[in-house]
Design goal:
By secondary structure, the protein is of the alpha/beta class. Helix content is 51%, strand content 9%. It has five domains: 193 residues, Glutathione S-transferase Yfyf (Class Pi), Chain A, domain 2 (Up-down Bundle); 188 residues, HUPs (Rossmann fold, 3-Layer(aba) Sandwich), CATH 3.40.50.620; 127 residues, Beta Complex (Methionyl-trna Synthetase, domain 2); 194 residues, Isoleucyl-tRNA Synthetase, Domain 1; 153 residues, no CATH class. Strand 17, helix 20 and strand 18 form a beta-alpha-beta unit.
Length: 973
């Protein structure tokens, strides 16, 4: 087989390794990008005469992926293509790698290093490589691993460095390196970049005598290859024989119709007690909006509803925090959510809330029907009661250690460590999130949904429909369906919620997971009295799409459909669960309390238009794995993709038409090169439609940008500014070029509608079209703007985001992220060179960590854990014994420590309050730990020691001895 490549392109090495592994002969021909068909290098010519223009496609052709490994392999292949290589090109474009801000490449390497550390390795043996191994290794080894900054990478990402070294030593790699000599480092990055763009003459006199295979930009095949005669004929036919359809006139209310495509869209109801951040917005409401706008622009009957989830303990807790009633909290934050979504141009048909009479009516009716049909059980269960707060603790008010994976901060309903549901009473060492006290167990009668009884019909339904769910949704739901379901409690002893409609239990309310999904139905009822046409259709089909982040999958894939299936009342069930992974902020998590990240109310303060936010969030939408918001990357995408690519293309075309053709679309006589660019654009349009039909917003967006890239290269190669000054034939050709480009701009105005509605309307106004409409999204390219059509006044669509602005915004939303070493000064005594002072600091820091963990924000307590570890390390170095820093000391050691502290108090050292407080804190931790083990004979003597220490402190300070612990102990006896 033959490899065509430009000089120094390391991607050619990937193909060489693939051929070696496939035991195929290798022939390498070096060509320039100008000589390559369509400018795609490297390419692999097959014996059949076809060619593969995608390195990934070629590798997968040469090295078949085992079915059981395909998901993982595809994930990392896509990561290399869509994230790693663009990041490498971006950082190499300036001729140096700037690490002063730990840019995008750092977060990617951090992610890869973590996976290698956790043994999520791509290499299965020492001699067999996967296609992902080959692809990622060459990308890193040939570029960033060979520059000066690699020294820093070696220190920060040791597992990546080890992996690079291991693969480099493989015989097949060493043999391949001898086949193709190239210079690693910055030149390699430049070669990748040089082969990433179409050459200027791609569209001049191209021949169609080769049938070439498809390009694959991601592990899933996409057409980006050369053009066949059939495609050219179709373009010619569609260009003149089809009329551009109009959009339907909007109606109210939107209702489904028999024989038509009826799309019902919901986004996970956001909790009303907080301000949504960028991750929340792309996770549900923005994703739902992009899809809804697409469906409307396809003339589907489309209803998009959402609203705020207002019942539950989270609302109660926020009300206590702000000294308001739960209803006041709901009213306040409902308005905040509404304002945020309006600014982001989220086009709900109706945005409602769950604190409505309709919600109460439907929830209670569903419960009674389930009860009548035998799917509701009553059980007396043990619940956790916080005696200090004098209330039963709902699941989210309890944290503790997961009984399964031992994750220390599992919630009372679900463990974030392993993802499994847990009951609050099963937690080890439970603690109240409000006061941090240990709750006691009390019995209470509750209602349960009999999920095991529903399980057979649920599994049958899921087997039919899960093929249309997103990969993330399938992965999350699979263990639930595989491991078997258990009865799930649906009521709680709370005040804020929908009451159980049974007289003797009216003081109980429905738990939020049972209540909230019903909000989709009740909000639709608020929108229209004919809501059952959507939710209980009789003579027409409804396709239900639900958008959410992965943490909401169990409720939408298991709980809610189980309830509706058991009710057996003809409800619409979800066909498409469109769940995604998480969006992080600059390699950390969003935290309102620490001022880290951009929240909905912050976005408009940045001065960046809402459409740019929408574009970038869609561009980095975490469809297959967690992604990362990055300020530098935002500016780069705005300045390169929007300003220099898309905006530049449409502005050049329309400005040229204004100046040279009297603001009218000139006559067009299509020739081969014009047909080629239209055929390439047609491929992108087909892929755009295919992607959005499956709600893959990130992939579809890239096809929009590809069309404008084709247009830019086409215009650049045709040089209409030269032809307009030439012969009559040249002038006609210039007119054809501008006419084709104007029509591509019109197509782009429609395709942009779902993503950037304001920009779409502005572009349509510049095209001389109705700026109120977004334009129908067609299946085929046709004459959208006929010759003679009058265009409007062209003007730039986008503006540059300057580096200075980026830096200011990075600092503004970076929050307080002091390093542990800086904070140690406030934790360790000034002269902390003795064991006693360090032990006291460790005890104090340990208490702080436990208290902060109870409040649940990892971004706050994680740095304090690092301080605690540093303190322990210092003590170990001081004593040369790690045993002395174990916070779980044995009773004997504890007694010795306390005795030493007591002796010091009674000796010449005087009565030291600080030392006593440290000893009390340490002894308190010991008592708490021993009590969890349950042996009174062990912990009772330690309690006496603790009381004695407290008495000594009281005698010094004059304060009374607290009896709280004694009372609690007596109650437990």
């Amino acid at each position: 087989m033959i490899i065509l490549t430009n000089d120094n392109n390391p991607n050619a090495l990937k193909l060489i390794i693939g051929l070696k592994l496939a035991q195929q002969s290798v022939e390498i021909n070096t060509v320039s990008c100008r000589d390559a068909v369509l400018g795609y290098l490297p390419s692999l010519q097959l014996p059949s005469g076809s060619s593969l223009f995608s390195t990934s496609a070629a590798l997968q052709f040469l090295i078949p992926t085992p079915e059981e490994s395909s998901v993982l392999i595809n994930k990392w292949l896509e990561w290399d293509i869509s994230q790693l290589q663009p990041a490498l090109v971006s950082y190499g474009g300036s001729g140096k790698l700037d690490t002063s801000h730990k840019p995008r490449i750092w977060s990617l390497l951090k992610e890869f290093n973590r996976c290698l550390k956790s043994k999520e390795r791509l290499i299965e043996t020492n001699t067999v490589l996967s296609v992902a191994d080959v692809s990622i290794w060459v990308s890193l080894w040939s570029t960033i691993a060979a520059v000066e900054v690699s020294k820093e990478l070696t220190k920060e990402f040791p597992h990546v460095q080890e992996w690079l070294n291991n693969l480099e030593s493989l015989p097949v790699v060493q043999e391949s390196l001898k086949e193709f000599k190239f210079e690693r480092g910055m030149n390699a990055i430049g070669s990748i970049q040089a082969a990433s763009w179409f050459p200027l003459n791609s569209y001049t006199g191209g021949t169609l005598n080769k049938q070439l295979s498809n390009e694959v930009n991601t592990p899933k095949e996409k057409e980006v290859a050369s053009i066949s005669e059939e495609e050219i004929l179709n373009v010619k036919k569609n260009w003149t024989s089809k009329d551009y359809p109009n959009l339907k006139e909007p109606s109210y209310p939107v209702l489904p119709k028999k024989g038509e495509k009826n799309i019902l869209i919901t986004s996970a109801l956001p909790y009303v007690n907080n301000v949504p951040h960028l991750g929340n917005i792309i996770g549900c409401v923005l994703s739902g909006d992009i899809f809804a706008r697409y469906c409307r622009q396809r003339n589907y009957n489309t209803l998009y509803i959402s609203g705020t989830d207002e019942y539950g303990t989270a609302t109660e807790a926020k009300a206590v925090e702000e000294n308001m009633t739960p209803q006041q909290i709901c009213d306040k934050f409902f308005s905040i959510h509404n304002d945020i979504y309006r600014w982001f141009s989220i086009g709900f048909d109706y945005f409602g809330r769950t604190t409505t009479p309709e919600q109460t009516e439907i929830v209670q009716s569903l419960f009674l029907r389930l009860k009548d049909k035998g799917f509701i059980n009553m059980e007396t269960i043990d619940q956790l009661l916080c005696e200090k707060c004098d209330r039963f603790l709902a699941d989210r008010f309890v944290e503790g250690t997961c009984p399964g994976c031992k994750y220390e901060d599992a919630r009372g309903d679900q463990c974030d460590g392993c993802g499994h549901l847990v009951n609050a009473t099963e937690l080890l060492n439970p603690r109240c999130k409000v006061c941090n006290n240990s709750p006691v167990i009390k019995p209470s009668v509750q209602f349960f949904l009999d999920l095991p009884k529903i399980e057979p019909i649920l599994k049958k339904w899921a087997a039919k429909t899960e093929g249309e769910w997103s990969p993330t949704a399938r992965v999350v739901a699979k263990p639930w369906l595989r491991d078997g379901l258990k009865p799930r409690c649906i009521t709680r002893d709370l005040k804020w919620g929908i009451p159980v409609p049974i007289e003797e239990y009216k003081k109980k309310v429905f738990y939020v997971w049972f209540d909230a999904p019903v909000g989709y139905i009740s909000i639709t009822k608020r929108y229209t009295k004919d809501y059952e046409q959507w939710w209980k259709p009789k003579d027409h089909d409804v396709s239900l799409y639900q958008f959410m982040a992965k943490d909401n999958v169990p409720f939408h894939a298991i709980m809610f459909p189980a309830s509706l299936l058991a009710a057996d009342n003809g409800h619409t069930l979800v066909n498409h669960i469109m769940a995604i992974e998480y969006l992080n902020y600059e390699d950390t998590k969003f935290s309102k309390s620490r001022g880290i990240g951009v929240f909905g109310t912050d976005a408009r303060d940045t001065g960046i238009p809402a459409d740019v936010w929408r574009f970038y969030l869609a561009y980095i939408r975490p469809e297959s794995q967690d992604s990362n918001f990055n300020w530098v990357d935002l500016a780069t995408k705005n300045n390169s993709e929007l300003l220099n690519n898309l905006g530049n293309f449409v502005n050049r075309a329309l400005t040229f038409a204004e100046k040279n053709f009297g603001s009218k679309v000139p006559p067009m006589e299509l020739r081969e090169d014009d047909l080629i660019v239209l055929a390439l654009a047609q491929r992108e349009l087909s892929q755009y439609v295919a992607a959005l039909e499956k709600a893959k917003m990130r992939d579809a967006l890239r096809h929009i940008l590809a069309i404008s890239k084709h247009g830019n290269q086409y215009m650049q190669s045709q040089e209409p500014w030269v032809k307009i000054k030439g012969s009559d034939d040249d002038k006609k050709k210039a007119g054809t070029v501008i006419g084709v480009c104007s029509n591509l701009a019109c197509l782009l105005s429609a395709l942009l509608g779902p993503y950037m509605p304001s920009t779409s309307r502005e572009l349509r106004a510049q095209l001389g079209l109705d700026k109120i409409s977004y334009g129908y999204i067609p299946d085929t390219i046709m004459t959208f703007l006929p010759a003679g059509h009058k265009i409007g006044k062209p003007s730039p669509l986008f503006s540059k985001i300057e580096d200075q602005q980026v830096e200011l915004l990075r600092k503004k939303y970076a929050g307080k992220q002091d390093s542990p070493s800086r904070e140690l000064k406030s934790v360790i005594p000034a002269a902390a060179t003795d064991t006693a002072a360090l032990e006291a600091a460790i005890v104090k820091q340990g208490l702080l960590v436990r208290d902060l963990k109870a409040k649940g924000d990892k971004t706050i307590w994680q740095p304090q854990v690092q301080i605690l570890l540093q303190l322990k390390k210092q003590l170990a170095e001081l004593t040369s014994s790690t045993a002395k820093i174990n916070s779980q000391s044995t009773p004997v050691n504890a007694k010795k420590s306390v005795s030493a502290a007591t002796s010091e108090l009674n000796g010449d050292g005087g009565q030291d309050v600080a030392t006593l407080e440290a000893a009390i804190a340490k002894q308190g931790l010991l008592v708490r730990d021993l009590k969890t083990k349950g042996d009174k004979s062990v912990w009772q003597p330690e309690v006496e020691i603790l009381l004695n220490l407290k008495k000594q402190l009281a005698s010094i300070t004059g304060a009374p001895v607290s009896a709280a612990n004694d009372k609690k102990s007596k109650k437990k006896k």
